[in-house]
Specification:
It contains eleven helices and 19 strands. By secondary structure, it is α/β, with parallel strands linked by helices. It has two domains: 360 residues, Alkaline Phosphatase, subunit A (3-Layer(aba) Sandwich), CATH 3.40.720.10; 65 residues, Arylsulfatase, C-terminal domain. Helix 1 packs across helix 9 and helix 5 runs parallel beside helix 7.
Length: 457
């Protein structure tokens, strides 16, 4: 995929700038700046390890009424891609660039500093446009305080610097130097409560504060990553599920859904809902098969068949669709009409899209791999169906893939043969066409090599 040139970026910025004016903000009308907000607030919510079938509108057994309603009244993104694991997706989201551009340490879960100081991030970009910025939840792009979010454009930060935590213990893996990780503004703290509730409490508290500027709130939940620990009230809501491990996952999903509802309610309560675009998606596909447990502070029970990406193939850390195609929603009352968008999108797209929404114009080429997807969200003409997308997972490029238009090539293990799929005709990747369509395979390999040449690995 080619990087958007400056002329194209300015044209798209101009287009989007004319399409997001709030009520009464029509061109030529004098505005009362004390009461009218011309830039949207942005609430970006990311769940953790939530599979394709781990949401109500994809599976009737799952109780997520809040997320289902956001999808029904907003834009359901039916082909929203991420990276196959947590750190890579977060890097892609926050920088607008594929994680392999920064080096092998960014292509799988990592506690190292992901990208250099001074890298343009979503927070620093929006802050330059007058936004107040905050993160409540999981950072995992540098697990030491000196690499934390406050060094990358966030005014306020809270949650874990590292990855998953004990839900009541709030520590990361105990056999690492990053076990102590729960913090507020990079100062370690001790608290009581379930991590999902604590992250939500802080998000709601931050929304409830007086904001004289537009705000950007990033809420990367730890849920529904293991360890799964839930109260009886969430388990009882899901008593219809017989598999106890699947029931536990469903309870965590219902709990997460409830907390998303609390964030939406706080926007409503503060009169901010109509001025706020809410974005939601999972950071990667669900964990499939058996989870052995005892990786995080207890309780961390072993689980089997608890998450589901059905009917997609594969799961977390795979470059099959089940590892990278995730539930995703965008909701903005009065600005985005309810619809389902089937065009391919990726986490790297949110950086250029929010740049356009906020009026940001880069002074130099930001080397973004993403595209402005706003035209597709608003039903306008777009060119996303023919686009090119690229994935690398693992320090040794263990798993790799590229999609261009309907076609996808992949290797899901090191030194494997290339596989080729037509995703329009075969979305569940059952029919490998590599041997019978060598010309198409070689064509896509050429595009893959072009993308690979841009990597720092």
């Amino acid at each position: 995929m080619q990087t958007m040139n400056r002329r194209e970026f300015l044209q798209q910025t101009a287009l989007i700038g004319s399409s997001i004016l709030l009520p009464g903000c029509l061109s030529g009308q004098k505005q009362n700046t004390a009461t009218k907000q011309t830039k949207p607030n942005i609430v970006l919510i990311v769940s953790d390890d939530q599979g394709w079938a781990d949401i109500g509108y994809h599976s009737s057994e799952i109780k997520t009424p809040i997320l289902d309603k956001l999808a029904k009244t907003g834009v359901e993104l039916d082909c929203h891609y991420v990276q196959p694991q947590c750190t890579p997706t977060r890097v892609a989201l926050i920088t607008g660039r594929y994680p392999s551009r920064f080096g092998p340490h960014c292509t799988s879960a990592s506690n190292e500093q992901s990208y250099p100081f001074g890298t343009l991030t979503m927070a620093s970009m929006l802050k330059s446009q007058g936004y107040e910025t905050a993160i409540t939840g999981k950072w995992h792009m540098g697990s030491k305080p000196e690499w934390g979010p406050n060094h990358y454009g966030f005014d306020f930060s809270y949650g874990s610097l590292a990855g998953a935590v004990g839900m009541y213990d709030h520590r990361y893996r105990l056999n690492t130097p990053f076990a102590k990780t729960w913090h507020k503004n990079l100062k370690f703290i001790e608290e009581e409560g379930h991590a999902t509730d604590l992250v939500t409490n802080q998000a709601v508290k931050w929304i409830n504060e007086e904001h004289k500027k537009p705000f950007f709130l990033y809420v990367p939940f730890h849920s529904v990553h293991t360890p799964l620990v839930e109260e009886d009230k969430w388990l009882k809501t899901n008593r219809h599920i017989k598999n106890p491990d699947r029931k536990l996952m469903a309870a965590a999903l219902t709990h997460l859904d409830h907390c998303v509802g609390r964030i939406i309610n706080s926007l409503e309560h503060n009169g901010k809902r109509d001025d706020t675009i809410v974005i939601f998606f999972s950071d990667n596909g669900g964990f499939i098969g058996r989870y052995e447990g005892n990786n995080y502070p207890p309780p961390d029970p072993p689980l089997k068949d608890f998450s589901s990406n059905s009917p997609l193939r594969g799961g977390k850390s795979d470059v099959y669709e089940g590892g990278m195609r995730v539930p995703a929603i965008v909701n903005w009352p009065g600005k985005l009409k309810p619809q389902k968008v089937t065009a391919p999108m990726h986490a790297v797209d949110w950086m250029p899209t929010l740049a356009a929404l906020s009026g940001f114009t880069p002074k130099t080429d930001p080397l973004w791999d993403g595209q402005n997807i706003w035209p597709a969200l608003t039903g306008q003409k777009h060119n996303l169906t023919k686009r090119q997308l690229y994935w690398v997972w693992g320090n040794e490029r263990d798993r790799i893939a590229l999609r261009k238009a309907d076609w996808k090539i992949l290797k899901n293990e090191l030194n494997a043969k290339w596989q080729l799929y037509n995703l329009t005709e075969d979305p569940y990747e059952k029919n490998n066409l590599a041997e019978i369509m060598p010309d198409k395979l070689n064509e896509l390999i050429k595009y893959f090599q072009e993308e690979k040449s841009k990597d720092s690995m």
